[in-house]
Amino acid sequence: MLNVRAALKNGIAQLREADVPSFTLAAELLLLHVLGRNRTWLYAHPEEIITDADAHRFFELVVRRAAGEPTQHLTGKQEFWGLEFEVTPDVLIPRPETEHLIEVALDRLALRELRAGRPQKSAGAGLQIADIGTGSGCIAIALAKELPAANFLATDLSPAALAVALRNAQRHAVADRIQFIECNLLAFPVGAQHAAPLLGTMPNSAPPVFHESPVRGHELRPFDLIASNPPYIGRREASSLPREVRDHEPASALFGGEEGYELYANLIAQSATHLKPGALLVLELGHNSLPAVQPLLDAANWTNVGVTNDLAGIPRVLAAERF
Ligand code: GLN
Predict the structure, then answer these.
(1) Range of lowest pLDDT (43-47, 136-140, 141-145, 158-162)
(2) Do 240 and 315 have their domain in common?
(3) Residue from 78, 87, 90, 92 to probe ligand 1 pocket by mutation (most atoms less than 8 Å from CB)
(4) Domain count within the chain
(5) Whose CA is nearest to atom 1 of ligand 1?
(6) Which residues line ligand 1 (CB under 6 A)?
(7) Does one domain contain both 45 and 167?
(8) Which ligand 1 atom is at minimum distance from the Cα of 254?
(9) CATH number of residue 46's parent domain
(10) Which residues contact 288 (CB under 8 A, 6 or more apart)?
(11) Predicted structure pTM score
């Protein structure tokens, strides 16, 4: 017979022994997951006896965590922007740094409204927003919750990731405003940004039909905001990554090339051809990407370039406005 306190103590000891980062938090999250409880409950009920079946499930997860599986793969979830996201080994686990990208995007949009003489806080009516390399969908979905009238297009190369992103969009009731498209960066079919949202359409099922509208000048550059957290780790850095990341997160979501920053050139060039005049590009950067990426924002196409540091002081978000 094991109570909550004893189970937790044992789990923490095993994870500490295995050098798991944040071992106490990891043990707590695994126990909460198994018991289907929240944190407050855990500390209010240290004497509660847990069933043998729950104890068994908990210690099984502790062993897997000790062997390197990320906590989020064992619980199937991660919080981002105050929302709970489903995560699987098919998607990058949303990171807190990426919340800076959401903040910068919202600040820049508010500034744009202010400059246009409109109320600063807007629901985003009429805005077309793209999230390139959407993974779990966290960027598009967080922005969709903040901008309840905006429309989105989210791309990813991985159909398995898109399936997770679609489920997350449904969970947060924004799937009717996000169109998910399997493609490389912004190489989506012409007219895709005007097609009906693919509500309920699983990537992998029948190919989506895009209803092409006659292309007019402004439709060639339809977006008000393009946001992306592209794969930006260098393959040459792979050996220095924590095993949780290197051995368990999708390589296609992590690595941008040998150096890491290789994808930004295409991403920026393609964005230039898809953003309206005065529209915004907001990119997450790797810890050493800035010197390679900032020069790609040539003065002929881009203005108001800004860099935002993360809490560790690393230049993390690059934002610019299209002429
Ligand atoms: N857009 C997703 C995120 O920010 C996935 C990014 C990626 O896979 N590189 O978490």
Answers:
(1) 43-47
(2) yes
(3) 92
(4) 2
(5) 134
(6) 92, 94, 98, 133-136, 138-139, 229-231, 253
(7) no
(8) 9
(9) 1.10.8.10
(10) 260
(11) 0.92
Does the structure show a pLDDT above 80 at 10? yes
Same domain? For 33 and 107 the reply is no
| 219 — pLDDT class (breaks 50, 70, 90) | low
Q: Degrees (nearest 5) of the Cα angle 146, 147, 151?
A: 135
CATH number for position 188: 3.40.50.150
Alpha helices in 92-157 (DSSP H): 98-115, 138-146
**Residue of 154, 158, 166 lying closest to 202 (CA atoms):** 166
Q: Whose CA is nearest to atom 3 of ligand 1?
A: 94
Q: CA separation (Å) from 166 to 93, 120, 122, 172? A: 15, 30, 25, 10
For residue range 50-105, list pLDDT tens digits in order.
Answer: 999 999 999 999 999 999 999 999 999 999 999 999 999 999 999 999 999 999 99
91 Cα nearest atom in ligand 1: 8
User: Is residue 89 in some structural domain?
Assistant: no
Confidence (pLDDT) at 121: 79
Give a yes or no: residue 84 inside a domain: no
Q: What residues make up the domain containing 162?
A: 96-322
